[in-house]
Amino acid sequence: xxxxxxxxxxxxxxxxxxxxxxxxxxxxxxxxxxxxxxxxxxxxxxxxxxxxxxxxxxxxxxxxxxxxxxxxxxxxxxxxxxxxxxxxxxxxxxxxxxxxxxxxxxxxxxxxxxxxxxxxxxxxxxxxxxxxxxxxxxxxxxxxxxxxxxxxxxxxxxxxxxxxxxxxxxxxxxxxxxxxxxxxxxxxxxxxxxxxxxxxxxxxxxxxxxxxxxxxxxxxxxxxxxxxxxxxxxxxxxxxxxxxxx
Length: 246
Hints:
With 246 residues, the chain is an all-beta fold.
């Protein structure tokens, strides 16, 4: 049977032998069945009834024990939850966000529980989430200024991330027509118009705001009659619409 015991003391170089009748094996002459104690403080050792030699297990002493960290979109905001099973000298948490999973920025801090050995649930909200996929992670800082950063989670925001050409009006035009499109944020989008042979008749960068936008195609005098495809490109995505020049 395996026995565990927590003990304290100062290393004397002779180890500990509190298991009656158990002595240290020849390969460990200065250690006993409770394991090697390597200094002042507290350690955890074990021994077997059959005197089989074990090893010392030293607690990690991490400032917090994190049991859950999650994030999801709820009513156009990101809800962030995390749970701790214990906290030691914990000053505060920091929620960090990234658009690419590499470069993170601090969003806000939340106070920690100082010291706790009970389960604590935390919740926070990002009320201005990024469009599309974004990443969140948790950082914990103790009162000594030492920080620990935990693994990130990803969130997909389909509402704020909408990008598409909604319509073109008129679809059949003689001189000009207008494209109506949606952008997830203020940015520049590329507009390319080609004929059915793939020849480019217009290629421009269009400054856009987040939400609904429109762009007027008013320089079509040189276009031959026929069908054209207008394609917009943004952030690795594209959307297109067909139209006819009379």
